[in-house]
Specification:
By secondary structure, the chain is α+β, with helices and mostly antiparallel strands. It has 5 helices and 7 strands. The protein has a 7-stranded mixed β-sheet, with helices on both faces.
């Protein structure tokens, strides 16, 4: 799959297609997420629509390839006064057939732009140990691992997975544009990406 790539905010009107894409991601790569496919499948249409309604501190972006929704990510700003300088990247996924088309990079750029509009100073995410491609993507954008939690997640078979915690400081010099984006041509830069950041949605 290749063609025109567009990233935009999702709204309640996107609930049906969001549900389909999100459920497919949870089934295809369960180790990448805290939420299980069964948990998400049990949610009501109204609850999903409410979640997708953009709020002052919570937005979800969708990546569309040739008009088809193929990628997702959510950005949530902390609301408590002493934490409001931070935002969290959640529930990142790109459909297998759309990987290698720059969707992951485009989603991340949209989320980073929103985080800067919120004037937060740091962006946080967590990624399970098997998600090496996702971790490489985040590191290309300036994220750095600050700690690893052992036995953080148990998969369906009871296997323990470690979880890497990453942070991007947006108030540091050079945070505005990672090195590999300085030479990005006008066309979408190619990038292979798997499901990634731990979800909290």
């Amino acid at each position: 799959m290749s063609g025109e790539l567009n990233v935009r905010l999702l709204t309640a009107e996107d609930a049906a297609v969001y549900r389909e894409v999100r459920l497919a991601a949870l089934r295809a790569d369960p180790d990448a997420f805290i939420t299980t496919a069964a948990e998400f499948e049990a949610r009501t249409a109204d609850s999903i629509a409410a979640q997708l309604t953009p709020r002052q501190s919570f937005v979800t972006y969708g990546a569309f390839l040739n008009g088809e929704l193929v990628g997702l990510t959510t950005l949530a700003r902390e609301e408590r006064p002493r934490l409001s300088h931070r935002a969290n990247l959640l529930g990142v996924s790109v459909a297998p057939e759309a990987r290698g088309q720059g969707c992951g990079d485009a989603l991340l750029r949209a989320a980073l732009a929103q985080a800067r509009r919120w004037a937060v100073t740091s962006l946080h995410l967590a990624v399970t140990e098997p998600q090496t491609a996702a971790r490489r993507l985040y590191e290309r954008h300036g994220f750095r691992v600050w700690g690893t939690q052992p036995d953080a997640v148990r998969d369906d078979a009871g296997r323990a997975l470690s979880e890497h915690h990453l942070c991007l400081r947006l108030d540091e010099p050079g945070a505005e544009r990672p090195k590999d984006q300085r030479r990005t041509p006008k066309r979408v830069r190619r990038c292979i990406f798997r499901s990634g950041a731990r979800d909290g949605t």
